[in-house]
């Protein structure tokens, strides 16, 4: 009796294949990958099984069938382990680099884009852009290539979670949000100085590694600016990005976007980290939503998400300075409050001490008067006796 369930080789989801026959292609209900149906009692959907493992199982009398999955790329030198994510441009896979026995991430362009010159050009330029970005807070590119019409590039695999995943648990602590924001600013400041704009900053593209450090991913929508090197990865003028985080000018004309669009996206992200939601319409200020945030942070956010680019911070470094000043103001007020409390306590202590001193003085005076009266009485008694 053949099995009616077949495990997806990528996400492991058990798909119902009872209406299919061997050789037909089915789509995984969870990750949407296409795979070839193999009806077998001993089905095992594991990817990357080695030749020795297969021989061992055959020796033990276990029947196995090797699956052919049309959506899983075969890239020389790499063994695909699973799917990290899917996007409009393609898919990102977790893989093992066989030559160095390490985990990497491979981004593969959708196969239907291969025949479109603009998309291939965008993809190749993206790899070249990333190759220039060597920074502790940016996911680096390792390799790029093409195989059987599939264009791909290989990146460092980051063990951790996305900011989006972290935000599912609600808004972040103030210090945590500021830490991530300053690290993002360091990354985009470096990129901007290399004439690279991210153009799609959002929580999904902010990775947080196991050490709690930010790594910016997916510069696939980056735009190289400069008088002599005006390479547009979105040369057609397409408004690439995610609606909530896109600057107004980016929605109108993507070809005229500059680094201030990244400032806008980060301002939206900072608000979301502190409020737990993106600002829309007449949104509330952060200081109205929580009591541990100084109003100066609201001013930083308002300036960074101004509708006109010229009214925003003109650079990542300028925004960094503003945030540090806001933090310093908070610390200054905290110190001032502490000093006032200490002063009040000191006055109270002095007041108590003064009362104690007055009581002691009164006791001394009373003792002096009584002693004087006793001495006087003794003298008078002696005079009377000597008469």
What does this structure look like?
The chain is built from nine helices and 14 strands. By secondary structure, it is of the alpha+beta class. It has three domains: 5-45, no CATH class; 73-157, 2-Layer Sandwich (Phosphorylase Kinase, domain 1), CATH 3.30.200; 159-341, Transferase(Phosphotransferase) domain 1 (Transferase(Phosphotransferase), domain 1), CATH 1.10.510.10. Helix 4 runs antiparallel to helix 6, helix 4 packs antiparallel against helix 9 (316-385) and helix 8 runs antiparallel to helix 9 (316-385).
Quick recap of the structure?
This protein is an alpha+beta fold and 387 residues long. It has helices spanning 51-59, 117-131, 163-167, 174-193, 248-252, 260-275, 286-289, 295-304, 316-385; strands at 5-7, 14-16, 25-27, 34-36, 78-86, 90-97, 102-109, 141-147, 150-156, 160-162, 196-197, 206-209, 214-216, 223-224.
Topology:
Blueprint lengths: L4 E3 L6 E3 L8 E3 L6 E3 L14 H9 L18 E9 L3 E8 L4 E8 L7 H15 L9 E7 L2 E7 L3 E3 H5 L6 H20 L2 E2 L8 E4 L4 E3 L6 E2 L23 H5 L7 H16 L10 H4 L5 H10 L11 H70 L2
Antiparallel strand pairs: 1-2, 3-4, 5-6, 6-7, 7-9, 8-9, 10-12, 11-14, 12-13
Helix pairs in contact: 4-6, 4-9, 6-8, 8-9
For the biggest β-sheet, the strand order reads 5-6-7-9-8
Provide the structure class.
alpha+beta
Under CATH, the homologous superfamily of the largest domain reads Transferase(Phosphotransferase) domain 1
Topology, number of strands: 14
Number of helices: 9
**Quick one: CATH class of the largest domain?**
Mainly Alpha
Report mean pLDDT, rounded to a whole number. Answer: 77
Indicate the CATH architecture of the largest domain.
Orthogonal Bundle
Radius of gyration: 35 Å
Helix content: 25-40%
CATH topology of the largest domain: Transferase(Phosphotransferase), domain 1
């Amino acid at each position: 009796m053949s099995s009616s369930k077949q495990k997806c080789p990528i996400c492991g989801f058990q798909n119902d294949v009872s209406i299919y026959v061997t050789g037909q292609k089915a789509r995984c209900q969870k990750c949407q990958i296409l795979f070839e149906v193999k009806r077998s009692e001993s089905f095992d959907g594991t990817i990357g099984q080695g030749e020795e493992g297969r021989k061992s199982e055959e020796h033990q009398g276990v029947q196995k069938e090797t699956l052919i999955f049309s959506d899983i790329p075969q890239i020389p030198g790499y063994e695909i382990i699973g799917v990290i994510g899917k996007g409009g441009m393609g898919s990102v896979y977790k893989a093992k680099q066989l030559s160095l026995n390490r985990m990497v991430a491979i981004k593969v362009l959708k196969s239907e884009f291969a025949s479109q010159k603009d998309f291939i050009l965008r993809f190749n330029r993206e790899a070249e852009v990333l190759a220039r970005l060597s920074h502790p807070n940016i996911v680096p590119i390792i390799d790029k290539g093409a195989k059987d019409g599939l264009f791909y590039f290989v990146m460092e695999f980051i063990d951790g979670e996305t900011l989006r995943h972290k935000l599912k648990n609600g808004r972040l602590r103030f210090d945590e949000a500021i830490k991530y924001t300053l690290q993002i600013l360091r990354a985009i400041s470096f990129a901007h100085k290399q004439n690279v704009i991210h153009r799609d900053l959002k929580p999904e593209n902010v990775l947080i590694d196991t050490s709690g450090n930010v790594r910016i991913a997916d510069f696939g929508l980056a735009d190289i600016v400069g008088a002599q090197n005006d390479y547009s990865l979105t040369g057609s003028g397409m408004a690439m990005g995610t609606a909530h985080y896109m600057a107004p000018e980016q929605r109108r004309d993507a070809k005229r976007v500059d680094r201030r669009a990244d400032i806008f996206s980060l301002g939206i992200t900072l608000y979301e980290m502190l409020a737990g939601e993106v600002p829309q319409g007449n949104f509330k200020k952060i200081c109205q939503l929580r009591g541990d945030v100084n109003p100066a942070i609201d001013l930083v956010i308002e300036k960074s998400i101004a509708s006109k680019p010229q009214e925003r911070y003109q650079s990542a470094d300028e925004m960094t300075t503003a945030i540090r000043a806001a933090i310093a103001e908070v610390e200054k007020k905290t110190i001032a409050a502490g000093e006032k409390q200490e002063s009040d306590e000191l006055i109270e202590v002095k007041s108590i001490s003064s009362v104690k001193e007055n009581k002691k003085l009164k006791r001394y005076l009373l003792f002096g008067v009584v002693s004087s009266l006793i001495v006087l009485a003794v003298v008078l008694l002696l005079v009377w006796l000597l008469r």
